[in-house]
Design brief:
With 270 residues, the chain is an alpha+beta fold. It is 25% helix and 25% strand. It is built from 4 helices and 17 strands.
Length: 270
């Protein structure tokens, strides 16, 4: 591939060209399609390990590659984070109980391009407080995406997310952030989900990155369990997360990981 036109900003952020949006769209759509299919596989009594096996098979059937299998020693095609798990939950034998909320996060590689997305699911009956947490987290991501256009800054994205979440008396996790991606999984910049308006690097057309806010019902502090991956809320409060992979266009955002079936925001009819 001809990289002669590719450019890197002073903040180390790569600028991709119009043709690269096509590659990202393909990868993003596969990841989103897999998450769409998981709606039927989340139910009371299901194990998170079985959900991960189905995802592994879908990635293989699509002729794609999982970005997470083998990434820093991680061995699964998804992260599945239940209830007070903030992110990087490891799929396993534990079975879902009535009222559990979970985030499923999938990253695939298609023709060298990375598609990274996550969303929330519920097993059984959703409680009112979980429903509110999920709604606020989803809306926070979308408010962040509304800030994506050339001339705005990454601080504008973080500020939009933080100010909304805190206005709802919930908290934004500081210990994990979004990231640049494209032909690599994690690249500059760190996309913070909090911050001051006008701070941070300025957005330019052709930047590709994720926004993936984690929101807690209680305090924002997290800790990592002994498995070295699982991040949980210190106060055991419930946590939710949504993630899209996005490209900056001439006047806004190209969301690569939109749900083909319109299932990104869960419908609570289970
Ligand atoms: N998909 C996660 C992200 O949003 C990263 C998972 S890395 C893993 O950046 F190794 F834990 F899978
Ligand atoms: Co990500
Ligand atoms: Co992810």
């Amino acid at each position: 591939m001809d990289k002669s036109k590719s450019r890197v900003t002073k903040d180390g952020i790569r600028i991709y060209d119009a043709a690269d949006h096509v590659g990202m769209h393909k990868a993003g759509q596969l990841a989103a399609e897999i998450l769409d299919a998981m709606v039927d596989h989340v139910f009371v009594g299901q194990s998170t390990g079985e959900i991960d096996r189905i995802i592994t098979q879908m990635v293989e059937d699509a002729g794609a590659t999982s970005a997470t299998i083998g990434y820093r020693g991680y061995q699964h095609a998804s992260c599945i984070s239940v209830n007070h798990v903030v992110c990087h939950g490891i799929p396993g034998d534990k079975r879902l109980k009535d009222g559990d909320i979970l985030n499923i996060d999938v990253t695939v590689i298609v023709d060298g391009w990375f598609g990274d997305t996550s969303r929330m699911y519920v097993a059984g009956k959703l409680s009112r407080k979980s429903e509110r947490l999920i709604q606020v987290t989803h809306d926070a991501l979308m408010l962040g995406i509304e800030q994506v256009k050339p001339g705005n800054t990454f601080g504008d994205i973080g500020h939009a997310i933080q100010s909304y979440v805190e206005s709802q008396r919930m908290s934004v996790v500081r210990d994990f952030c979004g990231h640049g991606l494209g032909q690599v999984f994690h690249a500059p910049p760190n996309v913070l989900h909090y911050g001051r308006e006008g701070s941070g690097p300025t957005l330019e057309e052709g930047m590709f990155f994720t926004i993936e806010p984690m929101v807690n019902l209680g305090r924002p502090e997290t800790k990592i369990l002994a498995d070295d991956w699982t991040a949980v809320t210190r106060d055991k409060s419930l946590s939710a997360q949504f993630e899209h992979s996005i490209g900056v266009t001439s006047d806004g955002a190209d969301i690569f990981t939109l749900s083909p079936k319109g299932l990104f925001h869960p419908t609570y009819t289970a």
